[in-house]
Every structure is written in C-alpha cells, then in structure tokens.
C-alpha cells in the first residue's frame, strides 16, 4: 500500500475525528449535566442524545474516522498510528481560530507546536 | 449547588476510565487488523471477503466493546465538564497506548519514537492548561 494512501487515512482520522468530537460535545451540552448514573436513567440520556441532530453528524464523522483507523492499523503499528492522531490538537486550534472565531492563546499554540514536534519525532523514529 | 468535591470525584473517575478504555480498545483493534491481513481491495468480492474477515475477528469486537465503553464514559463526562478540561486527560493515553503496544503486541519502539510520544504528551498537557472559553456565552 502506498505512502499516499496511508497519509489519506491518517488525515481522515485527524480531521473527521476532531469534527465528530466537536459535534458530539455540542449535542451533549444541549442535554445538560448527567446527574443520575442508574442504568435506566443512562438509557434515557442515550435516547435523548440520539434525538439531537448534532449527535448524528458527530457519530457519522466519528464512524468515518473509525474505518480510517482500522485501515491505518492494518498497515501500521498502533504505537505509531495513535500518537500521530495527536495532530487533531493542531487541527482543533486552527479550526477553532479560522472557523469558529475562537482566540487561540499563545500558550495553546506552544502546546500545538510541541505536539507537532513530537509527531515529527515519532515519524523519524519509527522502526 | 453541587459540591465541588463530588463533581471532581466523578469527573476524575470517568477520566480514568477514558484513559484506560481507549488505548486498550485501539490495541485490540490493531491486533485484530494485523490478523485480518492485507486490506488491498481490487474487486467487490475482495471487499466482501475483507468485511467478513474483519467482522468475524474476536479481537475487533472486543476492541469495539472497549471503545464503546470509552465512548459512553466520554459522553457522560462531556455532559458537565468542558471539552478543554477533558481533552488534556488524553495526554496520558498516548503513553498508555505506546506501553500496551510495546509490551502486549511486541511493537519495536525506538528511543526517538519514545521521545516523540513524551513531547506529544507534554504538548497535549500544555494545550489543555489554557482557558477553556474564549467565545461569548449565549
């Protein structure tokens, strides 16, 4: 399998995964804080959760990321693939600033830079 | 008003679940996909055969089970805690997945690779230690 295909899979894990998590977060916040942990109430929470459209968009994107993860894991080690997905922190910072108008602090950019340096080291150091 | 310590206790318990369940699930998926073999697809028949091999692998289903447990814990904690507060907890899951990959799956990890994982974890911690909201509350 070519390097290009592997890059596409890693990119899908990062981009679809991050967007999916943001959608799911938005959906769960509309439901409000879960205070009751008895199984019957948890089932009711889940039933309410699946009625929020953001949840379905989030789940669809996370499913795409999941199948990309399966593809990547079939050709690469898990100790390589999962650390590389930390690039989602960079995607989140760029996406937040560009699409959501969030102000990303200097400290957060430092964190994102560290993640990128770490991922580079993982790429250099594999096998 | 909810007591500070109670909210913190249940948050940390769920974050602990998140940090254990997700790496375990990923390691099991990796084990499953490695036993499934080549995923190169050239025809619909090959796609069908691949799907059958993936869906009949016990490691894949066990991995999906752990990831579902992770996902439910994640949904629950996100109903009250900020995404920016929960996300840094995953800093340690990168180390956990590397340790599991190395010891359970015998994956070779070079010193540079380990260093990269440590730097990633530090970066994730730094990202998480910033102010959670920069936009106006509705």
Shape of chain A: globular
Q: Quick check: average pLDDT of chain B?
A: 84
Give the overall pLDDT of chain A as a whole number: 86
Mass-distribution shape of chain B = globular
Can you give keywords for this protein?
heterodimer, A: 127 residues, mainly alpha, 6 helices, B: 138 residues, 74% helix
Description:
The complex is a heterodimer of chains A (127) and B (138). Chain A has 127 residues and is an all-alpha fold. Chain A has one domain. Chain A has helices at residues 3-31, 39-49, 53-75, 78-84, 88-99, 106-125. Chain B has one domain (4-128). Chain B contains six helices and no strands. In chain B, α1 packs parallel to α5 (91-104). Chain B starts with a helix and ends in a 10-residue tail after the last helix. At the A-B interface, α1, α2, α3, α4 and α6 of A face α1, α3, α5 and α6 of B.
Layout: helices, strands, pairs:
The complex is a heterodimer of chains A (127) and B (138).
Chain A (H helix, E strand, L loop, with lengths): L2 H29 L7 H11 L3 H23 L2 H7 L3 H12 L6 H20 L2
Chain B lengths: L3 H33 L7 H12 L2 H21 L4 H4 L4 H14 L6 H18 L10
Helix pairs in contact in B: 1-3, 1-5, 5-6
């Amino acid at each position: 399998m070519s390097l290009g295909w592997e890059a596409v899979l890693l990119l899908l894990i990062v981009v679809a995964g991050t967007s999916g998590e943001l959608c799911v977060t938005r959906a769960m916040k509309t439901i409000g804080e879960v205070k009751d942990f008895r199984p019957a109430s948890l089932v009711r929470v889940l039933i309410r959760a699946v009625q929020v459209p953001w949840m379905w968009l989030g789940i669809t994107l996370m499913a795409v990321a999941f199948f990309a993860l399966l593809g990547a894991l079939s050709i690469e080690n898990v100790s390589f693939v999962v650390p590389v997905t930390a690039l989602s922190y960079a995607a989140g910072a760029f996406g937040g600033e560009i699409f959501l108008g969030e102000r990303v602090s200097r400290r957060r950019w430092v964190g994102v830079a560290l993640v990128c340096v770490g991922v580079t080291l993982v790429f250099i150091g594999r096998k | 008003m909810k007591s500070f310590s109670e909210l913190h206790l249940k948050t940390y318990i769920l974050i602990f679940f998140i940090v254990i369940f997700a790496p375990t699930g990923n390691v099991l998926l990796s084990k499953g996909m490695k036993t499934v073999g080549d995923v190169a697809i050239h025809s619909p028949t090959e796609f069908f055969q691949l799907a059958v091999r993936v869906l009949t692998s016990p490691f894949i289903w066990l991995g999906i089970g752990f990831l579902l447990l992770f996902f439910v814990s994640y949904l629950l904690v996100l109903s009250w805690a900020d995404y920016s507060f929960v996300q840094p907890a995953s800093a340690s899951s990168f180390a956990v997945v590397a340790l599991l990959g190395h010891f359970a799956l015998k994956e070779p990890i070079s010193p540079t690779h380990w260093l990269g994982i440590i730097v990633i974890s530090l970066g994730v911690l730094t990202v998480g230690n910033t102010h959670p909201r920069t936009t106006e509350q509705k």
